[in-house]
Design goal:
There is one protein chain. The protein is mainly alpha-helical and 92 residues long. It has two domains: 46 residues; 31 residues. It is rod-shaped, with a radius of gyration of 34 Å. The termini are far apart.
């Protein structure tokens, strides 16, 4: 009889440990799935990159228009605008 009791205790302990290990694995799997879901949501929410603006290298008027737009937006200072404008006009 003591043999059966000892086997029951060992078996019960092994079962409890196995359940604990499996619970940890399940928790890790759930966390990994949550991370994957969040990454997918962020990828879907990210705005698509804007298409590249057409090259204005060949058309001086397009370059001047673009420079004026940048000046109006405050991206360029008046001095930077004037310098680039004079380069474009000199290349015509």
């Amino acid at each position: 009889m003591p043999f059966l009791l000892r086997a029951a205790i060992v078996g019960g302990g092994a079962y409890a440990i196995g359940k604990h290990v499996q619970g940890g694995r399940d928790q890790n799997a759930a966390q990994n799935q949550e991370i994957a879901d969040l990454q997918q949501q962020q990828a879907q929410a990210a705005p698509a990159p804007e298409p590249a603006a057409p090259a204005a290298d060949e058309d001086p008027m397009a370059k001047l228009t673009q420079l004026k737009s940048l000046l109006d937006q405050g991206v360029l200072t008046q001095a930077e605008f004037d310098m680039q404008k004079s380069k474009i006009l000199a290349s015509m």
